[in-house]
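During the first year of the project, the team set up a workflow for recording each protein of interest as an amino acid sequence followed immediately by a discrete structure-token representation. This format lets reviewers and collaborators read both layers of information side by side without switching files. As required by the reporting guidelines, we include two representative entries from the current panel. The first entry is reproduced here exactly as it appears in our internal archive.
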Amino acid sequence: MYESIYLWIKALHVIAVIAWMAGMLYLPRLFVYHCGAEVGSKQSETFKIMERRLLKAIINPAMIVTWLAGLYLAWSGGWFSSGWFHGKLLLVLAMSGVHGFFVRWVKDFAADRNVKSQKFYRVINEVPTIMMIGIVILVIVKPF
């Protein structure tokens, strides 16, 4: 029974991670396109709706489920004392920090206060990818 629950929560965790990462990779791309839209235009207003809905309906809930399921898995698997887990946890905390910046930038765009360039958002778009690669390597390879 315990192993069955563990596997279901593990599946939930993987699904939530995929949803969170999909949003974390797509949202900065929306920011890139939003930068090119004239303030107050129909296009700009559409981007505001897309950004808000992506954040509220997908990214935020997926992050919460990722954290809750992940902490359960770490606790029940006894991973808290593992070196690879410490590295993963550090990267997931950093990913959560990037998520926080995205929340702020969605609010900035919603209030027509964005001051960052398309180039900035293009670079930021790569940050979650790099962190995701590190997390996956730590979880699969467990190098330490």
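The second entry, processed by the same pipeline in the following quarter, appears below.
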Amino acid sequence: MLDKLFTPEQLTLICADLAHLRLLADLKLAPTIPYFVEKPYPIGRCREIRDEVFTLLQTELPTTNKPGLSLLKNLIAKGNPLQKAWGSLRDEYFQNAFILGPWYIDVSNDTVHANKPRVEILPLATSNFTPIKDFAQFVKIARSYWKVDIYKNDVCPALAPYMPLLCVGTNGASWLGAANDDMLNIAINSNFEESKLILNALPTAPVQIIEKWQRVLSGFSNDNLLVHEGDPIAYCDIYGKASPKPDLVKRDAVVIAYSSLPKSV
């Protein structure tokens, strides 16, 4: 373990080199995604920033002579892969970061509060960064962080086993949640029992929200997954009993159907 620990001086070097890569990422991203829900870049752009810095690292690390990046390169060479991670930070925010050995590395630390340093490196054990464990935890964070109301997804019940949430923003726009791999895996790995739990716990959306979805979905008559009616919990039971192991074909079909929808309704 000792060979994985960085001194404060080494951490300063790593932060400086990562901050330089972050500036390069900003130069590319800021003109193309200047706002997120009416808030200026970099607010809300932790995934895009993390992914762009990751791409830059793939180019820089093999031939780097920069002191901070060289420290990262040496740690990776000792069998510690640089991994993308998404999860809960102190149960206050969703955050995209890197995990490298015993370290939590955040290159988008200013995407909630823009006055924070761009880069933060902490021991993973004390960072309070954890995977999302269930939909209830996701809902708790999303309500306060995103300022949304959350209802059961009974507008697209055939998608609900995988995406059981209907998020509604303060402007009345709504979208299905949560369509990332981590949350899809919570649904799939529980054989949709976690989806059933949250569907049972949440109310139905207001009538005006449901009517907006009905109008939008009327244009998708060629996709059965989007126009099937019924009880979302019944679909959880149907999908759960259909196969003893995860049905990747069904998962892909659900994601494709979801991707064809507007980003918000």
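For the second entry, the following points were noted during internal review. The first strand starts at residue 35 and ends at 36. DSSP finds ten helices and ten strands in the chain. Both points are flagged for discussion at the upcoming steering committee meeting.
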